[in-house]
Structures are given as C-alpha cells and as structure tokens.
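anyone seen this seq b4? input:
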Amino acid sequence: MEFNPKELLAQAQRASQEIQEKMRATNVEASSGGGTVSVKMNGQKQLLAVKIDPEAVKSGDVEMLQDLITAAVNEASRKVDGMMQSTLGGMLGGMNLPF
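predicted toks r here
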C-alpha cells in the first residue's frame, strides 16, 4: 500500500467533522447530592440546564449548594471526556493509517 498524504489528510478532516457533529448532538446529564442538583451539558462542554431541588434552597446552606453544583458540572464534564475518548478511539480505528 502506497502512502498518500493527501488521502490521509482528507480522512483526518472527515473524521474531525464527524466528531464535531457528534459532540454537538451529544447531551449528558449528571447529578450530585442524591439528585439535589442535576445538570445537562452538550458534547462541547456547554452547560445547557441546571436543576436545583427547591428544598436545597430552603436550607439556606449556600456553600453546600455551590459545592453540589460544582460537583455535578465536573461529573458532566468527565462524562463528555469519556464519550470523546470512546468516539475518537472508534473513529481512528477505521482510518487506514500507514504505520
């Protein structure tokens, strides 16, 4: 098989476009505090929604609420990272790399 850098570049560009489209269309959800705080994030790590149990606000413990929000957002971000690694691994496995 002959090494064709133009074809390799074209494959990489197609793969990059596919990944970007897939990540835009991907949504993950994560929660903390047993569901007290839940968030939705897309594959580009844009926060789409935050839901807070009204009971958490009534307690007046702002620091706890801030920690729960931070934990939920960080968990959603980890989920996106995991999905990205999985997607990349699957797509790169389909490329005809010369090495």
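The longest strand covers residues 27-32. The chain has three helices and three strands. kinda curious what u guys think
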